Amino acid sequence: MESEVKALLETLNCVQSSLSDSDLVSQLRQHGEKIISLLKSPPQQIKREKIKEMSSEVIDSNPYSRLMALKRMGIVNNYEQIRNFSVAVVGVGGVGSVAAEMLTRCGIGRLLLYDYDTVELANMNRLFFRPEQAGMTKTDAAVQTLLQINPDVILESYTINITTMDGFNKFVESLKRQVMSHTRGGSTGVDLVLSCVDNYEARMVVNQACNELGQTWMESGVSEDAVSGHIQLLIPGETACFACAPPLVVASGIDERTLKREGVCAASLPTTMGIVAGVLVQNALKYLLQFGLVSKYLGYSALKDFFPTMEMRPNPQCSNEACLDRQKEYLEQKPARDAAKAAAELESAESEASIPLHSDNIWNISVVEDHEPVSSVSTAKQENLPDGLLWELPTADTLETTLSEEILAENGDLDDLQRQLDALNAS
Amino acid sequence: MESEVKALLETLNCVQSSLSDSDLVSQLRQHGEKIISLLKSPPQQIKREKIKEMSSEVIDSNPYSRLMALKRMGIVNNYEQIRNFSVAVVGVGGVGSVAAEMLTRCGIGRLLLYDYDTVELANMNRLFFRPEQAGMTKTDAAVQTLLQINPDVILESYTINITTMDGFNKFVESLKRQVMSHTRGGSTGVDLVLSCVDNYEARMVVNQACNELGQTWMESGVSEDAVSGHIQLLIPGETACFACAPPLVVASGIDERTLKREGVCAASLPTTMGIVAGVLVQNALKYLLQFGLVSKYLGYSALKDFFPTMEMRPNPQCSNEACLDRQKEYLEQKPARDAAKAAAELESAESEASIPLHSDNIWNISVVEDHEPVSSVSTAKQENLPDGLLWELPTADTLETTLSEEILAENGDLDDLQRQLDALNAS
What we know:
Helices cover 41% and strands 10% of the residues of chain A. Chain A is α/β, with parallel strands linked by helices. In chain A, helix 4 crosses helix 9 (270-289). Chains A and B meet through helix 1, helix 2, helix 3, helix 4 and helix 9 of A and helix 1, helix 2, helix 3, helix 4 and helix 9 of B.
């Protein structure tokens, strides 16, 4: 562009010496017009070209060499398959934007982004967004940055509020749309949904959509004091859904944002948000590329560097109808699943070595019951709740009446266990 | 800029109609020169203005509202003091660049950056650098991005290789230079050094500089297979230095990079690097702003989501002379430190309540020895090392001859303990 203007100045010298030549003037105008068209092109040119196939060649110009090296290191069997996966990131804030950037840099096939908010300077204490993006929608700003980082990723952005009726329908439709051939965890068009929203209502909406679609998802959250967070894997029917074990206290039907006092906002830190985004996407990579142990729940407490883990089974009394449907399906499919698993294990054992299988049981090892009740939260309840909040879980009185049903359910499970053993013997 | 060129075109129309006026031509040249000067100014204009004082006002345009909220949440007593701190980040790669960005977004006072490498497309699988920065030095690219994110931070960049004699001297001089009044942990001009380098040699150099200066620092690292990492706090004389417990195997004097086979590179992931940068800066914030528990060592194993912690005492037989000097100083200052601590505790106990202090010792609680020997690594040594590697730790035979000295040292410590008790009673 600069040389263009220099050429213009050289032409001017000629104009000065031979003012009678009118061709020079039209030449000047051409220079000027070219400058304008150059200025109208995007301010930041995307310099990185699209790459057809991921290569493991170790050269400075290969953006995938360090990822393909995961194969040689024996961590991932087939890294290239990351290009087949579609991941939805719901909420492009402090956690979601960083998660989207990590997936983009890893070369994910297709990324679906959902948010209705705009970038503000008040977001600058977290990674990803830049001050000059203030005022843009978070989805537009994210697409601008991510496209520049890796043009190989298919980006779809949805500037919608999923907690509205219309937004929810669009959300579900977008998840169902099948764009790529290969998918994991469900019959939808995406392999995984990552929830990176910042409120209870939106989490319940993601939960509803994923329960209805039988879609595996991961939930993430950061506390209001910015020093703790968590991620959780949710497989409809197999693990607890978000409604199976809701938070102890929730907003009573009114907008959570109005609950907060005027002039008060939650604290946040780029460190905590970055760590939660990191463990979330790490768990997603382990799930998609099938390496390591996929965590069911991983907490993070910054003050003591404590990382609790746990597992939550589905609640047979969950308030979510779609969850109960998925639980039923999961139980129905259990004998077939167990038989397939046993057959696979038998095959693996036979192929590895001809070690005799013991038919006796001297150590008294038995098949463990698959449906332990959800562990009850032992936090002592404080009776005086602030206005606008109510207890989500039933009180002990309410619970007692449902205990007899639970015992019945347990007996049902024993019968089910017998059926599984029969299926195992039959296979 | 566009209007400037449009004005130029309008002038051209005049030139066409009145070619005899030579003033118009000089006017044209002025336009051209102004365009060039505009083009030479930074391509991305910094839109965020400098902010004189951190405010906790909850408005969208305040980039510090979510950080100042840490005070109201009871996490940090005085967040604004972050502006008084100087932090050095050595190595601006996958971990260092993200650490620098986190500190910048947190509003750190002054940031010193050290790297001699250039940005390559092969770095794009980690956060921070953008493809269009390929070819720039990492320090220049980092300053470009960080200045735009937060113009309030004082940025100093050093494009030097600290492992050269000249680079080392410049490194030490830059750490000593006192620019701001308030500093923590030493008599240098920085409050903390974060080591984010990727090789043993550079770590030993940071270790040497910090031991010489008595500078508290934190070390970080990520494994070659990209699925584990760690951070460590090093306080010269008080904790183990990097030479006190070196890695089992190190390069034998030759360049580590040539050790690697042709066409082979280490794997890396934006997730692991982001998590390590996150826990590193979180630990730095806890250390600087004095909240929570500052971790001495925190490991991260991605495959199993395992986060080991440990503590390493200094090695009285450390090969690093400066470390031994700091250990000696630390021991000499121990009686005074203990007396001050006991006095502070006494004062705190007296002011809190008038609970009687027990002079008897029914639980048999005693002062624990401060100098346990460094825990020995129990990994079975493999005898056949590849060419270019050697064992860093002495073999059992070599160690045996030094054991008697160790016993003497232990006796010395007991005398020291007696002196401490005397000092305690005297105060």
